[in-house]
TrEMBL record:
Signal peptide: none
Organism: Alicyclobacillus fastidiosus
Annotated InterPro entries: BioW
Higher taxonomy: Bacteria, Bacillati, Bacillota, Bacilli, Bacillales
Gene that this polypeptide is encoded by: bioW
Homology family: Belongs to the BioW family.
EC number(s) reported in the record: 6.2.1.14
GO molecular function: 6-carboxyhexanoate-CoA ligase activity
Cofactor: Mg(2+)
Name of the protein this chain belongs to: 6-carboxyhexanoate--CoA ligase
Function per UniProt: Catalyzes the transformation of pimelate into pimeloyl-CoA with concomitant hydrolysis of ATP to AMP.
Reactions mediated catalytically: heptanedioate + ATP + CoA = 6-carboxyhexanoyl-CoA + AMP + diphosphate
Pathways involved: Metabolic intermediate metabolism; pimeloyl-CoA biosynthesis; pimeloyl-CoA from pimelate: step 1/1
Record's subunit section: Homodimer.
Keyword Ligase: yes
Length: 264
């Protein structure tokens, strides 16, 4: 069976600069291509952050032998009252995972201010040295976009059935888990911090192999269009090799979490 990576990204030009609005990723069988492409166009055109003036839809054949097998990170939720408590919780989780306090604080401040030049959002993620707050991604406008990934359909169905009672079995959550599972499976990555740039969505997460995918219920104020992702990487990482795997190596979440939850 032929598999294809389908990717969408949309943007709008503001004062001569393209500003990212939305993106989406799937790996699908040829028979699903048209349906998924139509869903992505609809998603781009109806995004809550605005109507794009540029939508890029790309379809690329994936070689099944190259697909990396991923175990889904286990999911937990850390309930917090407000943004300040959320940032404290994220800082704590990042430090426990092995990130320095300086890098954790820098990342939180960066996502608060807007990680791209001019306080804008980035299409991809920031790569941050986990020891010292030094940005390592070659292009701070674009960042690193984790690409070519999806869930194996039967595994996603079991995952949804397993957490149905929590009310969070929805695309935003499972797509974020796929990204976090691929990112933290890279030996160079210690942890990820993310919150959405969708103005209506305030829950974000800290992901690591140590704690899994920890949702933090309040990481930004409602109505804010600023968010993004930071990947904390080990000192001495071969940046080009890491970026190449994150952006180009196809990966499928084809296993449910097997590790026990670690107490937060
Ligand atoms: C995004 O939508 O851009 C980020 C997703 C964060 C998902 C947090 C959650 O688990 O609810």
């Amino acid at each position: 069976m032929s598999l294809f990576s389908v990717r969408m990204r949309s943007s709008r030009e503001e004062q001569g600069t393209p500003v990212h609005i939305s993106g989406a990723e799937r790996i699908v069988a040829e028979t699903d291509l048209e349906r998924v492409a139509a869903t992505f166009v609809q998603r781009a055109m109806q995004h809550k952050n605005g109507t794009p003036d540029f939508v890029n839809l790309s379809i690329e054949r994936v070689c099944p032998e190259e697909i990396m097998s991923l175990e889904a990170l286990p999911i937990q939720t850390c309930d917090v009252e407000d943004v300040e408590e959320g940032h404290r919780a994220a800082h704590h989780l990042l430090c426990e995972a092995g990130v320095s306090s300086e890098s954790a604080n820098f990342a939180i401040a960066l996502l608060k201010a807007g990680p791209a030049p001019g306080g804008r959002v980035m299409r991809g993620a920031v790569l941050l040295d986990a020891e010292q707050p030094i940005r390592m991604e070659p292009d701070p406008h674009r960042g690193v976009r984790v690409s070519k990934l999806d869930w194996e359909p039967s595994v996603l169905e079991s995952w949804c059935n397993g957490i149905g009672h929590l009310g969070i079995a929805r695309p935003r959550v499972w797509e974020a888990i796929a990204i976090a599972s691929k990112v933290t499976a890279q030996p160079e990555v210690i942890a990820e911090l993310c919150w959405s740039d969708d103005q209506s969505y305030i829950t974000g997460y800290v992901a690591s192999q140590q704690f899994g995918y920890v949702r933090v219920t309040h990481l930004k104020p409602l109505g804010s269009l600023i968010g993004g992702r930071v990947f904390f990487i080990r000192a001495g990482t071969d940046i080009q090799s890491l970026i190449s795997r994150l952006e180009k190596q196809p990966a499928l979440v084809d296993r449910l979490p097997t590790r026990p939850y670690i107490e937060l």
